[in-house]
Design a protein that fits this description.
The protein has 61 residues and is an all-alpha fold. Helices cover 74% and strands 0% of the residues. It contains two helices and no strands. The longest helix has 32 residues.
Length: 61
C-alpha cells in the first residue's frame, strides 16, 4: 500500500544514481491501487498547502 508514497523518493534516488527499486510482494490489486490513491491525496494536500503559502506571502508584499 505504500508504493504510491515512495515512488517520488525512488525516482529521486534513481536520478542521483542510487540503485533503488520498488518490489511488489504479490499484494492484491485493491491494496495496490488504494496506496496510489492515498498517495495522490497526500501529495495534493502538500501542493495545496504550499500553493496557499505562496499566495499568502504574495499578498503580504
Amino acid at each position: 500500500m505504500y508504493h504510491g508514497l515512495i515512488i517520488p523518493f525512488s525516482l529521486l534516488g534513481k536520478a542521483i544514481g542510487l540503485n533503488i527499486g520498488i518490489y511488489d510482494a504479490g499484494k492484491d490489486v485493491f491494496s495496490y491501487w488504494l496506496g496510489y490513491l492515498l498517495a495522490l491525496l497526500v501529495y495534493a494536500k502538500i501542493i495545496r498547502v504550499l500553493w496557499l503559502g505562496i499566495k499568502l506571502r504574495m499578498r503580504k508584499t
